[in-house]
Structure formats: structure tokens, C-alpha cells
Amino acid sequence: MTQKYYIITFGCQMNVSDSERIAAVLESIKYKPVQKIEPADLVVVNMCSVRQSAVDRVFGLNQKLVKLKNHNPQLTTILTGCVLKKDEKKLSRFFDYIINIKDIGKLPKILRNKNEGKKDYLRIKPAHVNKFSAIVPIMTGCNNFCAYCVVPYTRGKEVSRPAKDIICEIKNLIKRGYKEIWLMGQNVNSYGVQRETDAKQNAKLMRNKINFPKLLKMVNNIPGNFWIRFTSSHPKPSTRAKLSAGLVPYRNKVSGTGDFSWNELINIIAKGEKITPYLNLPVQAGDDKVLKRMNRPYTIKQYINIIKKVGKKIPDICLSTDIIVGFPGETKKQFQNSVKLFKEINYDMAYISEYSPRPKTMSAKMKDDISIEEKSERKRILNNILKETALGKNKRYVNKVVEVLPMEYKNGLLFGKSWHYKTVKFKGNKNLIGKFVKVKITNALPWILEGKIEYRI
Ligand code: SF4
Fold it and tell me: What is the predicted pLDDT for the residue at 204?
């Protein structure tokens, strides 16, 4: 009898990408996906530990899993993703297996006692969730150890994928008609750092000096009609820049080629006709002292300089950021620097989070001294500024025709992303999903543009 699987994914796009790899491994041993959890013989939960709320959602699944197990005692449950050791112990009561995300290639062995599992999970060919937009991981892990973040503990050290594998995967996707490629990594700036697991590939990366801008250029040179996006970048100065400034390199100085100047990257984005003008550059705090306590090795002046350089070369750049409010010890005055920064940069989008301590991290040892009410007030303030700046930015598109990739259909309306990564809503037919169309923008709201279809490209 065919075994059915259901995957629950929490967290970032990297986890979405990992779930596509999990699906591919399961399908290689003849498991079939199901749209609802109830008929599944196997439930895989791909967890995120970045925020406590995400962890709580996994704990919140427990009752559901117990109920499903009572109904179907043959049900197998697996937990993977970003799992902290501390939570592992508590969650082991509700899952049959807890496996490291890097070991998903061993699922055939675990489930069928088959030996065909592949060791390196980045080499598993993913089963993409749609036929037009694909996430392509280029590296995983993080060496940065920001004071609040669990990723270095759950995902381990940075490992880059060989450029050859990445290019080959993208060429295949383009042949199959994919229109949007997301190059994904916790920290794409570090692309090209030493691969611990593969000395030969590492030597090649070093020889070819393939850093992130060079990889981006290689992807841009692949023939075809498609868009390239990437996330996430780190605003830290390059090791070269730090060395030439006579500064002591910070603790996470890379040992491979994963180092570039922002000028190099900006030039590639500006020239690359397939590279979309969208940059997510997490600032995390608007105050130098808070940044220092967060172990983020840059100043606000350096951050603004990068944004200015980007704006000069790519005037229509769409900017987003990630920021935390209420980090331990963040005074009202220091928070005002975040307010100032938001007003100065005019972000198109921002992902604003209220600080919550995560076990094992450096900040967990600091006193979480900002009240919940104050954190939500700070979030509200930044959100209000963002609403205004996002609306101001969106108004620039009114009466203009923009290219859109429709991704979703609901009640006669299509929702898609524009070249600048703006959400666009317009009337249209379902069969336009995954095909480029031209849309005339008729109205701008802070989080969405409304328009009328002009024609299909
Ligand atoms: S750069 Fe910092 S916030 Fe981003 S994954 Fe690494 S440690 Fe976490």
C-alpha cells in the first residue's frame, strides 16, 4: 500500500527549501504527499527555533499528534529543522524520531531500512512546491553568533555548496520553465567559506575564488527568461576592508573565499539584467551600542553608507530590513535611533520583532529588562513609520506598467510579485499563474499595489 506523508513547515524560506528536500527523499522511496494531515502515515515537522512563538507552535501540535496516533497507531512522526537540545528532550515524547536536518538523506534507512540515503543533504534534488518559483540554497549554517540567535547552534558552521552544483540545478529549473530563482543562505555574503565536509570542492572554490558576487554573475549568465532574487545579506564590513582599516578581524573571519566588497556586489546587481532590484539588509538595531551588545560588527554609519552606495547605483532599489525592538538594555534614547534610521532610510518593508530570549544564546544571559508592553509599543511606532514610507514608495508605481509574476489565485483575483518584489493584486485568469504579465498600477496601499492587466509577456 502507498504510504502518505504530510510536512508541516515553520520558519524561514530556508526551512521551506529544506522541506522540499525532505519531500524529494520521501518520494524517492515511493511516499506520496497528501493535502491534509489526517490520512498521512508519516508526519514530518520541520521546526524553527528562532523565536519562542515558533517553538510554542510545535509544542501546540502535541495534542493533535497524540489524537492522530490514537486513531492510527501505525503513524510515524518525525521532528527535524532547527531544534535546540533543550527542546529535543521535551519533544521526544511526541515524536518517533528527532533527526538533524543534515541527516534527512538517511530517511530511507530510518523508514524503510534501506541504504540508499545520500549523506549530503544539500546534494538532494528537491521536490519543488510549485512550477515557477524555486528556492536554491547556496550555503547553510552561520558563523556570526549574533547574541540573540540560535541558528549557529541549530544549523552549525557555514558550509557552501559547490558553484557547479548550484548552476546545474538552476539550468535544470530554467529548462523546466521556472521564472523566479531565490538564492538562499543564512548569510549569502559568506558564500565560498570553507567546506568542512568536502576538501576537494573546497580547494576548487578557493582556486576559482568564487565569492557571492561572482556566483550571482554566473547565475545571471545562464540563458533564459527568469528573475534572480537572494536573501539574506549581512551588513558587516568585508574582512579585507577591516584589515586595510587596521582593525582586528572579528571572531568569525572566514577561512575561504567568502569575502567581498559591497562595491563588487552592487555593481553586479546593477549590471545583471536578471537580478531584481530588491535588497533585504537586516539592521537589527538603529543604535551602535545595541549593535555591539548584539555582536553585530558594524556601525549605523557603515550601514547607511552601504544603503547610500546601493541607492546611487540602483536608484529604484526596493529595500527591506529585519529589526528587533526591546533588546536587553535598549534604552528609550537608543530606540529613538531606530526611529531615526527608519525615517532616514524610507524602507519599502521591514520585519519587526519584539525581542525574546532564546536558550543557549549570549543574550539569554542578559536581563530581559524591557516590558512586554514597551516592546509592543516600540514595534507599533516603527510599524507606523514603515506604513508611511512603504506607502510613499508604492505611490511611485501608480499609472506605471510593471512586470508581475502571478503566484496565487483567489475569487477572480491574481496575486503576484513584481520585478521590485512588490505584491500586486489584479483581476485575471487562474491559468496566468507562473507566467509573466504586464500590469498597470491603478492604486497604491502600504502593503500592496492594485492594478489592471495590460497583456501577457
Ligand atoms: S547572521 Fe546573526 S541573525 Fe543571521 S543567522 Fe547568523 S547568527 Fe543568526
Answer: 58
Q: How remote is the CA of residue 291 from the centroid of ligand 1, in Å?
A: 13
The Cα 354–Cα 341 span in angstroms is: 17
Angle between helices 300-313 and 332-345 (to 10 degrees): 10
H/E stretch holding 353: strand 349-354
Same domain, 44 and 117: yes
CATH code at 51? 3.40.50.12160
Whole-number Å distance between alpha carbons of 219 and 221: 5
* Whole-model pTM over 0.90: no
- Residues 266-317 have pLDDT tens digits of 999 999 999 999 999 999 999 999 999 999 999 999 999 999 999 999 999 9
Per DSSP, what are the bridge partners of residue 76? Answer: 42
> Ligand 1 pocket, 296 CB below 6 A?
no
Instruction: Report the amino acid identity of residue 393.
Output: K
Quote the cell numbers at residue 100.
538533524
The Cα 452–Cα 60 span in angstroms is 42
Task: Give the chain's end-to-end CA distance (angstroms, integer).
Answer: 45
Q: Measured in angstroms, how far is the CA atom of residue 147 from the centroid of ligand 1? A: 9
| Residue found by looking up cell 538523506 in the block | 105
Residue 141: inside a domain:
yes
Same-domain check for residues 85 and 18: yes
- Structural domains of the chain, count: 3
Angle of CA points 338, 344, 347, to nearest 5° = 85
